[in-house]
């Protein structure tokens, strides 16, 4: 078989049911049939976000929802605190800059996690902060932020809490209501395992109250319009949505809830723990500290004596397993193994067999099977 196994931190392979759902012909996006599908999909999104709030589907990738959150909730000239420990934390800063929002950053060394105390100190030091952005799973470094504990801090301040769960929702613990999250965003192509091209967003009452006061400076992503269209009968979106991708997202969410959200999250944590042990058994070093490691992507230092191409190139060309490289200054320094979406031990067994053979070929490990052997502790 020549198909490439995607072990990327998104996009991820879709369940055949999801692909099948997409092959159904399009329907009128303002009609009853679509309204029912859209409503069911947004309800499944809210169930996945674990919130009583309504959710909205945007035809755009995860970044569109990040932009929708900031641009609808913070006025031009107002101040936002951006927690930045990697590329996606940095993206919120770039979005703020484009929208004339003043960005104050809480800068972390890449590979480390923010502590709730740091957030509290930053809020205490500046009462003009109108919102805080956090990335739950910093995909560029393989670090998970303690969004629950940050939420415990945020509930004592007026500033809105905006959380990016693009690469964690469905794969790690996200409980929007319990974590006091005011606005939460995600994308379709990671743990949800639908094709790329959709994003989802949910606002609580505080977020809507802010949204009503903010002078909207965007057109396509105006959330008041999404709310008004969502409230119509039949429910709809303000502009033509990707009908086919919404069929796919609905099927992907059904797959998750048939497994059970808790079970899906547990499966991701199990894959992450197994991957970390397999990495260590192959004499490789994890990039972040294990205590703050992601449940959905494992970042690994490229060992001395090898290049990114030696490892990822061989994995792809010879063994047909695709891993991701480092981003920005980590390019050439780390590889990232995505274990998100519908993957389980079969995919990990192939990946770590291929990684072991690759490292053996490079003379970097004695026992090519040590990684796979380490998986046994987690799956047998
Ligand atoms: C944590 C995180 N946030 C945001 C994004 C941006 O999502 P998209 O590429 O779908 O716009 C990504 C994509 O990798 C991500 O991992």
From TrEMBL:
Molecular-function GO terms, alphabetical: alanine-glyoxylate transaminase activity; L-serine-pyruvate transaminase activity
Cofactor section: pyridoxal 5'-phosphate
Signal peptide: none
Keywords in alphabetical order: Aminotransferase, Pyridoxal phosphate, Transferase
GO biological process, one term: glycine biosynthetic process, by transamination of glyoxylate
Domain of life: Archaea
Occurrences of domain Aminotransferase class V (ranges): 9-327
Pfam family, one: Aminotran_5
Entry coiled-coil feature ranges: none
Gene3D superfamilies assigned: Aspartate Aminotransferase, domain 1, Type I PLP-dependent aspartate aminotransferase-like (Major domain)
PANTHER family xrefs: ALANINE--GLYOXYLATE AMINOTRANSFERASE 1, AMINOTRANSFERASE CLASS V
Entry similarity comment: Belongs to the class-V pyridoxal-phosphate-dependent aminotransferase family.
Protein name in UniProt: Aminotransferase class V family
Lineage: Archaea, Methanobacteriati, Methanobacteriota, Methanomada group, Methanobacteria
């Amino acid at each position: 078989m020549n198909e490439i196994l995607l072990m990327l931190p998104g996009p991820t392979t879709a369940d055949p049911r999801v692909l099948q759902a997409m092959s159904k012909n399009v329907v009128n996006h303002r009609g009853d049939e679509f309204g029912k599908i859209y409503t069911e999909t947004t309800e499944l999104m809210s169930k996945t976000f674990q919130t009583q709030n309504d959710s909205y589907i945007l035809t755009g990738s995860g970044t569109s929802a990040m932009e929708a959150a900031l641009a609808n909730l913070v006025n031009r000239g107002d101040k936002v605190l951006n927690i930045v420990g990697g590329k996606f934390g940095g993206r919120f800063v770039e979005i703020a800059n484009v929208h004339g929002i003043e960005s104050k950053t809480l800068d972390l060394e890449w590979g480390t996690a923010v502590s709730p105390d740091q957030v509290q100190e930053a809020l205490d030091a500046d009462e003009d902060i109108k919102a805080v952005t956090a990335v739950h799973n910093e995909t560029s470094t393989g670090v998970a932020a303690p969004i629950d504990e940050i939420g415990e801090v945020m509930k004592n301040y007026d500033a809105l809490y905006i959380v990016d769960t693009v690469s964690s929702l469905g794969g790690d613990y996200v409980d929007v209501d319990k974590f006091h999250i005011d606005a939460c965003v995600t994308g379709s192509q990671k743990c949800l395992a639908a094709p790329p091209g959709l994003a989802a967003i949910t606002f609580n009452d505080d977020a809507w109250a802010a949204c009503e006061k903010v002078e909207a400076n965007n057109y396509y992503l105006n959330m008041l319009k999404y709310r008004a269209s969502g409230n119509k009968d039949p429910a709809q979106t303000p502009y033509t949505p990707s009908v086919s991708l919404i069929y796919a997202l609905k099927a992907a969410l059904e797959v998750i809830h048939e497994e059970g959200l808790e079970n899906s999250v547990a499966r991701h944590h199990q894959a992450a723990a197994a991957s970390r042990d397999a990495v260590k058994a192959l004499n490789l070093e994890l990039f972040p500290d294990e205590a703050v490691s992601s449940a959905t992507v494992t970042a690994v230092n490229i060992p001395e004596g090898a290049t990114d191409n030696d490892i990822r190139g061989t994995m792809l060309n010879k063994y047909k397993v695709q891993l991701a490289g480092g981003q920005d200054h980590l390019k050439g320094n780390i590889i990232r193994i995505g274990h998100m979406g519908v993957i389980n031990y079969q995919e990990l067994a192939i990946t770590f067999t291929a990684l072991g053979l690759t490292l053996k070929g490079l003379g970097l490990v004695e026992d090519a099977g040590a990684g796979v052997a380490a998986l046994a502790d987690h799956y047998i």
